[in-house]
Amino acid sequence: MAPGAWSGDKFRFSEHVHGGQDYVGAANISLVVSQPAKWENIESMQESADARKGIGINTYNEQIEIKKRRVARFEEVIADPSKAAPRDDVSEYPAAIEELKKEIREAEASIAGLKRDWHPIDLGLPQSLGYAAGPTLHAFLLRDGRAYNFMSVGGEGEAPFEERKKAFLDMLQRFKVRNLYEIPKERGLCIPYGFIPDDGTGHFRMEVSMRYKDRPGVIYTIGTAVVGERGIEQGESPMLQATARSAASLLAGGLTEGREVKSIGPRPVQIGALPAYQGGFSLNVAEPGQPPVFNYSVYTGYAGWDHSRVLPAITVNLRSFTKEQDPSIKENPPPIEESMQRLEALLKGMRLRPTDKPMPELVPAAPLP
C-alpha cells in the first residue's frame, strides 16, 4: 500500500494519482495511517486541531465586530435621522438592531463553546496525544515509526458524546501494530500496519489502494463493507456496475478518432472463491501517429450479504494514470494485458480469513428447548 500524499514517503500517492475514496472505518471511527513519522509529527497533528479552534474564534470575533459597527451606525441614525441615507427606512432599524444583537449573542456563545469543548484530552496511552474538537474526538498515535490518526465524529443517529468517548478509548486500547503481511488469527479488523480485535459483530467499511513499485501509474483499490448498516446499501448490483464500466468503451470509442479501444466484459469472475462480476475498458489516448499511451479502468465486485461480517461486499478497482496526468510518473502504464494478469493474481489470492474463535454468525444456533 502506498502512503498518503502528505506522508513524505517516496512511494506515496499524489494529488493526481490515487485510489478512489481511500478510507478505513470501524463503526463511526475513521482511521488514517501514514509513514514515516516522528513524535514531532504527532505533536503537529494535535496543534493543527487546536489551530482550527483559533481560526474559528477569530472568525466569530470578526463577525461580532462587523455587527457591532452596524448596530452603532443604526443607533446613530435613530438618534439623528438626518444622517440616514436617502433610501433608508429608519423605521426598520430597531428590529434590525435586535436581530444583530441576537446574532452577536449567538456568536459569543459559539466562542464560549469552542473554548469549553475544544481542548487536548489524555488518552492514557504511551506515545499518544488526543484532542476533543467539540463532538469530534481525535487520537494521534506513534507506533513503530508510523502515525495513526483515529477520529470519531458525532452527528444525527450517533451515540451521546460520553458513550462515544468510552467506545473510542476502548478501541484505542485494543489497537495493535501489525506487520504488513501478518495475518492475525483473532477476530477483528485488519488495517494497514494495524489490527483492531473485536467480538466479530462490529461494523466496518474500508477502501485501501496499492500499487507495484515498477508500475507507479497503475493502482488497485480494494474495498469492503458490511452491507445494510450505517448507510451502506446494496445499490446497483455488481453485474450492473460491471456492465456500465464496460459500456464506457462505446462512449470512449466515439472520442478517440479510430484509436484502439478495448471492452472488458461484462463477465462473471471470482474474487477468491466468491462469485463476482467484472467490466471495464482500455483506450489509447495518444495523439494520432504517436506511440500508444494506454488508459484503463476495470471494476470487479461481489455484492455481499446483508449484515454479514463473514460475507461483506467486496470491490476491486483497477485504474491507470499517464505521465500527462501526473508528471511525477516517469513512464506511462503498460498495455492492459499486463495489468490484468496482476489483477487476476490479486483476485485469486483473496481469501476469507479463518479466526481462532468462529465468527458469531457461523456459530450454530442453540437448539430450542
Q: Roughly how many Å apart are the termini?
A: 51 Å
Largest beta-sheet details: 12 strands, antiparallel
Structural class: alpha+beta
Number of strands: 15
* Assembly state: single chain
Poorly predicted residue ranges: 1-11
Q: Please indicate the percent range of residues in DSSP E strands (runs of 2 or more).
A: 25-35%
Q: Widest sheet: strand order?
A: 3-4-5-6-2-1-10-11-15-14-13-12
What does the model show?
By secondary structure, the protein is α+β, with helices and mostly antiparallel strands. The protein contains five helices and 15 strands. Helix 1 (39-79) runs antiparallel to helix 2. The protein starts with 22 loop residues before the first strand and ends in a 20-residue tail after the last helix. The relative contact order is 0.12. Residues 1-11 have low confidence and may be disordered.
Summarize the structure.
This protein has 369 residues and is an alpha+beta fold. The protein contains 5 helices and 15 strands.
